[in-house]
Amino acid sequence: MAERLAELVDGMQSTNKLLKAGSCSGAMTAWSAFSAAARKDGALAGKYKSLIGLAIGLSKRCAPCIAYHTKAAISLGATKDEVLEAAFVAVLMEGGPAQAHLGLVLDAWEEFGNAP
Question: Based on CB atoms within 10 Å of each CB, which residue in 8, 10, 25, 108 is the most buried?
């Protein structure tokens, strides 16, 4: 699994850069500004927003979303227990399909949680 999820995150970010440089630059610039505003600390700290993003990504079965939000949560100080509890909220709400993708969360923790 080494770097598999990092490749998904990098690919998503590369696609966004290409779109921002092309004819979709206005939409991508607006998206980037909205995304940054939504993720910044407010009533909820960014860590918790990333954990919510992880849970939603898991419920939608979106591997790049799971990787991105797990990496973000870890970078903002989330513990393994916090990541797993957020994941299990998704399983509670989504059921078996989310549970079937828990391996991606564990892989993301392994890949990003042990990074220097």
Answer: 108
